Every structure is written in C-alpha cells, then in structure tokens.
Amino acid sequence: xxxxxxxxxxSTAIKEELKEKVSSLKEAxxxxxxxxxxxxxDKASSxxxxxxxxxxxYIGIRSLSYHLPEETKEEELLSLIGKLNEDASVxxxxxxxxxxxxxxxxxxxxxxxxxxxxxxxxxxxVGALSIGQPGFVSCTPAGVVALLKRSGVAIExxxxxxxxxxxxxxxxxxxxxxxxxxxxxxxHSKTADLKEVTKRADILVxxxxxxxxxxxxxxxxxxxxxxxxxxxxxNNKLCGDVDFASVEPVASMITPVPGxxxxxxxxxxxxxxxxxxxxxxx
Length: 282
Ligand code: GUN
Description:
Number of strands: 11
Radius of gyration: 19 Å
CATH architecture of the largest domain: 3-Layer(aba) Sandwich
Bound molecules: guanine
Largest sheet: 6 strands, parallel
Helix content: 40-55%
C-alpha cells in the first residue's frame, strides 16, 4: 500500500506560514497585493480566479480584480497590464489563461514585468530557471517539488521521469528536478517506448492530460508517483492522469486527485506574491 501524499494538508501548512508572514509585514506597514485579470467568462477560469481571490483573502493579501468582457481588445488588456506594472502598490500580476482567441497570449505574458510575473510564465522567468538564476517559478511544478520535500522524498540522485512537455508544467518541472540534482528524462507523445522509460523512474511526474492513462504497467515497484492531471470521469467524479486504483498498490507514495497537486498550485502562487513584495522592496 502506498503512502498518500496529502496536498491539502501540506498546502494548508504553507498558507498558514504565509498568513503569519503577511501579518508581520502588515505590522511593519507593508501590504502585499495581487492583481488578477480575467478576460471573458470561461467557466473553469471563473472557478480558478475565485479560488485565487479566496486564498488571498485568507492569507491577508489584497487582491485587485479585473473582469474584462470577452470582446476586450488586445491593446486594452496590454494597456491595463502596463498601468499595473507601473503601480508600485501592486506586487504581482496574473492574467488567467486562456485568453480569448483574438488576443495573442504570448504578447500578454511578455507584457507583464518579470518582477511581477508571479505565474512564472514570462520568457525571462523561464530563462532564469534554466540557468539557475533567481526568478519566479511556475506554480504547479513548484508545488510538486514542495510536496516531495515536505513529504521527505529526496530528489538528489534519483531517476526522475516527467511525462508531458508543456510550457506551464512539463518543461519547468524537468528544470526544477534538475536543479534539485535529479537525473531527469522528459517523455511526450512521440516517445517511442513510453513504458520502458517510465519504469525506470524513482519519481514519476505525470502531466500528460489524458484521464487515468497511466496504470501499474508504467510504474516501477516502490516509485513515488505524482499526478498533475485533473479531469472528470464518466460518472462526473474527479480523476487524474493516473489510474489510482491500479498504481496505488505498486507505488511507495502517491498523490490523490483531488487533494494532491491541485491545492499546491494556489499555495505556491501565494508564496510567489509574498516573495514579489520582498523583491520589490530591496
Ligand atoms: N490557466 C490554467 N492554469 C493557469 C495558471 O496557473 N495561471 C494562469 N494565469 N492561468 C492558468
């Protein structure tokens, strides 16, 4: 039986630590502030944005909310980002993705000042991560590393396999595991023999975007399995990229869905916002 890695508990501990930090900053007259921009009414985005605002409120971070209509012009969005870049009272800027199709997502990401890029999506943030310089790290992969560390899983010297190569998860995940001295392999849809590679993993991070695809036949006995996926199955129940019932008996540790990686993403976002405030004071 695998030990469950409890992302809910670990994210709550991180949020409690941040709450104390924000409270002592407040006593010193320093307020932490995140600006959240949503364009249009994508349902999933509205849920995510709402959760981010609630987390800010819980921790004591001021959140500024900009909900723009679907037909907002790219120039208007870029101009709002420009204003927030200049506003010294705003520490972090987050534009919820996806943006509507008529807006160029890359231009939006690149418009955010790297010092305020709490999502860690700006090319400068990604570049800094790849050459070991300070900068914001994408929240989901940062959350995975925090889960591993706080669960006592050593990364150094381990065979780490990441399935998925997205800019938001797979690529920064691989860079972070490398920074922690893991031996890292990245698999993707064109990998010739996926099982042959994933069965080498001591730490297997699954971010493939296909419901319950990874069963026990992909997993080495005793591996630590981290499931980044989130889907609804045919019964409308939440599930991940990993077939939990199949993998749980062979893994040594595993994250559940829900309650694994999911809650960590927001906790790491909050951590980035508090760090942004510190960096901007220097
Ligand atoms: N859309 C889905 N995930 C994310 C995220 O982590 N940040 C932003 N800005 N948009 C998203």
